[in-house]
Amino acid sequence: MAATESALELLHKGEAEARESLVVISARGAGLDTYASFMNVTSRRIREMEVQHGEARKALGVELAALKEANRKVQLLENLKEARQIRWQRDFDREMTVIADEAFLSRLLQSKKSGRVAQVDRASAF
């Protein structure tokens, strides 16, 4: 796209220079014919380059839209992955709490069965 823009710029610059040089060229028919021929070729080339530039801009727009859609989908997947991880961590923490509670109660019951009525600290159950 940058190449197209620079080529268009060069053609416009050449066209402007040709107009300026027309003043220097005498009013002879050959000079005017040459200038007219040059202007026709240059104008046609400018129109072609402008069409190519427009097509490139359209293609870029399509690609950008596809990129935005792909980024949206990636973000959605990342959000789903994060939600799944949070859910898994919450379930894991819940399970660990249940296991710790069961271990605490088991030690408490064992100490009562053995006749020791010693204090059982919940943190030491691990």
**Main β-sheet, in a few words?**
none
Mean pLDDT: 83
Low-confidence segments: none
Gyration radius (Cα, Å) is 40 Å
Oligomeric nature of the chains:
single chain
Strand content: under 5%
The topology string of helices and strands comes to HH
Care to give the gist of this entry?
The protein is an all-alpha fold and 126 residues long. 86% of the residues lie in helices and 0% in strands.
Detailed description of the structure:
The chain is mostly helical. 86% of the residues lie in helices and 0% in strands. The protein has helices spanning 2-24, 29-113. The mean pLDDT is 83.
What characteristics describe this protein?
2 helices; mainly alpha; 86% helix; rod-shaped; 126 residues
Fold blueprint:
Elements: H1 2-24, H2 29-113
Helix pairs in contact: 1-2
